[in-house]
From TrEMBL, chain A:
<keyword id="KW-1003">Cell membrane</keyword>
<keyword id="KW-0812">Transmembrane</keyword>
<keyword id="KW-0997">Cell inner membrane</keyword>
<dbReference type="GO" id="GO:0017004">
    <property type="term" value="P:cytochrome complex assembly"/>
</dbReference>
<keyword id="KW-0201">Cytochrome c-type biogenesis</keyword>
<dbReference type="InterPro" id="IPR045062">
    <property type="entry name" value="Cyt_c_biogenesis_CcsA/CcmC"/>
</dbReference>
<feature type="transmembrane region" description="Helical">
    <location>
        <begin position="24"/>
        <end position="46"/>
    </location>
</feature>
<dbReference type="GO" id="GO:0020037">
    <property type="term" value="F:heme binding"/>
</dbReference>
<feature type="transmembrane region" description="Helical">
    <location>
        <begin position="66"/>
        <end position="87"/>
    </location>
</feature>
UniProtKB/TrEMBL annotation, chain B:
<keyword id="KW-0479">Metal-binding</keyword>
<keyword id="KW-1003">Cell membrane</keyword>
<dbReference type="GO" id="GO:0017003">
    <property type="term" value="P:protein-heme linkage"/>
</dbReference>
<feature type="compositionally biased region" description="Basic and acidic residues">
    <location>
        <begin position="141"/>
        <end position="150"/>
    </location>
</feature>
<keyword id="KW-0408">Iron</keyword>
<dbReference type="GO" id="GO:0017004">
    <property type="term" value="P:cytochrome complex assembly"/>
</dbReference>
<keyword id="KW-0735">Signal-anchor</keyword>
<dbReference type="InterPro" id="IPR012340">
    <property type="entry name" value="NA-bd_OB-fold"/>
</dbReference>
<feature type="topological domain" description="Extracellular">
    <location>
        <begin position="29"/>
        <end position="176"/>
    </location>
</feature>
Length: 253, 176, 54
């Protein structure tokens, strides 16, 4: 029981986080650019066309990373919620504010690229099957979280309400994951699973893994940058508030 | 410490409650969540006449007939789930991925004569992504016919398409 | 001009949207960090000067 709070409190310190982020950011950025560049070039120009989908299969190399990031960012939100609700981790609420819009972007891009893939292949932009609908719900959960966390005059109340929403919405994650197994859907089952061998050729799997890794590192870099900026901004606010307080004190004296 | 532990248990209890509530709800509505019905289901429980339903399954090999009436393509084909087959009529352009052996979903209604009239046909594709050259080679050598079922495992494509070593591994396998 | 594949508009649109949004997010985050650092430095310097003056 002792180890957990110690570990938590080490990174609870915003100064410690800023130092960590200063060290990590160049590596994350470089890795993201490298892997994304290689993955996108490979996916667009060198990966083979699918035997039935033809060149359109290349949309997979951006669609799958967005789907993965939309889910993982939400998982991040849920973890932040637990840290904030249970341990009152001072960084968790700031992190939740910054992760929300990024995850919403990923979910929106996942839906849009999916639509762009569905129209030429399935013959429709959108159907209300379990997979598509549960991802749309995820997108609306993000929007609700973004709105709720800023909805109150007193930030702490909004953050608490948003944390509860994020935690409750986490039930959508397993629904998204297993929707293609539990119900029959228009969306195909996952090609890459933890248990089975991937059902695609290695010449398609590699660029997919590269773009996924690249986008993941990039999103990590964006979140670290936003969180660092948020810490600076909140310090500025504190300093301004204190100086305003000093001024009123001297006036009173 | 005490309060933190209590808050942790409260959060765990709330998540468990919401999770089981969601699970039970989904279980209850499970039949409404399915996107399409299989031919055998549709035959066992025929919907009310003229009710719009989705019928999903595989296009039976050799069942597709395309004609053109007044400039409009008229298609007839059978959809099967392995247990029952239903004849589908559809006027309009079929999606690119439509072929015999492909999984498709047809939106329409079951007629009195047991045939299905579709107003929209969507092509499903499975989770197998195969380079065109591999597919051509497998089809050419007769190891796989897309009209009759799923593609072989991705891990076996290399040995199946290799010109010479394939026979070696094959004999090795049978030998061992 | 090489032959464009069928549905190339869909492929181009999805790559452009995804990469464009990512670039926008990354650049705006970078600018925001730079701005927030500069502002904090300014406010810190100001309050330090006031502190020594007092």
């Amino acid at each position: 029981m002792r180890a957990t709070p110690n570990l938590l409190h080490r990174y609870a310190n915003p100064g410690q986080f800023l130092r960590l982020s200063r060290v990590l950011l160049p590596w994350l950025t470089a890795g993201a650019l490298l892997f994304l560049g290689a993955g996108v070039a490979w996916g667009l120009f060198f990966a083979p066309a699918d035997w039935q989908q033809g060149e359109t299969v290349r949309i997979m190399y951006v669609h799958v990373p967005m789907a993965w990031l939309a889910s993982s960012c939400y998982l991040g939100l849920a973890v932040c919620s637990v840290l904030s609700l249970v341990w009152r981790h001072p960084l968790a609420d700031l992190a939740a504010i910054e992760i929300g819009p990024v995850g919403a972007c990923a979910a929106a891009l996942c839906l849009v690229t999916g639509s762009l893939w569905g129209e030429p292949m399935w013959g429709t932009w959108w159907v209300w099957d379990a997979r598509l609908t549960s991802v749309l719900v995820l997108f609306f959960l993000y929007l609700g979280h973004i709105a709720l966390i800023r909805a109150f005059d007193e930030p702490a109340r909004g953050q608490k309400a948003a944390a509860v929403l994020a935690l409750a919405g986490a039930v959508d994650l397993p629904i998204i994951k297993f929707s293609v197994q539990w119900w029959n859907t228009l969306h195909q089952p996952d090609s890459i699973t933890l248990t089975g061998a991937p059902t695609m050729s290695l010449t398609m799997l590699w660029p997919l893994l590269l773009t996924t890794l690249g986008f993941t590192l990039g999103v990590a870099a964006v979140i670290f940058t936003r969180l660092s900026a948020a810490i600076h901004e909140s310090r500025t606010r504190q300093l301004l508030a204190r100086s305003r307080l000093d001024r009123t004190d001297t006036h009173a004296a | 410490m005490k309060r933190k532990t209590r808050r942790l248990w409260m959060v765990i209890a709330c998540v468990a409650c919401i999770g089981s509530a969601a699970g039970l709800t989904l279980r209850a509505f499970s039949s409404n969540i399915v996107f399409f019905m299989a031919p055998s289901q549709l035959k066992a429980h025929p919907p009310a006449a003229d009710r719009t339903v989705r019928l999903g399954g595989m296009v039976v090999a050799g069942s597709l007939h395309r004609e053109t009436h007044n400039g409009e393509p008229v298609n007839a084909f059978q959809i099967t789930d392995g247990q029952a087959a239903i004849e589908v009529h559809f006027t309009g352009i079929l999606p690119d991925l439509f072929r015999e052996g492909q999984s498709v979903v047809a939106l329409g209604s079951l007629q009195r004569d047991g045939d299905f009239t579709a107003s929209e046909v969507l092509a499903k594709h499975d989770e197998t992504y195969m380079p065109k050259e591999v597919a051509d080679e497998l089809k050419r050598t007769g190891k796989w016919d897309p009209r009759f079922g799923k593609a072989p495992d991705a891990s076996s494509w290399d040995t199946m398409t290799a010109k010479k070593p394939a026979s070696d591994t094959q004999s090795l396998k049978t030998g061992g | 001009m090489t032959n464009l594949p069928a549905h190339w508009q869909y492929i181009a649109a999805s790559y452009a949207l995804t990469l464009g949004c990512s670039a926008f997010l990354a650049i705006s985050a970078m600018l925001r960090l730079r701005r927030s650092k500069a502002r904090l430095a300014a406010v810190e310097g100001h309050s330090r000067r006031r502190g020594t003056a007092a």
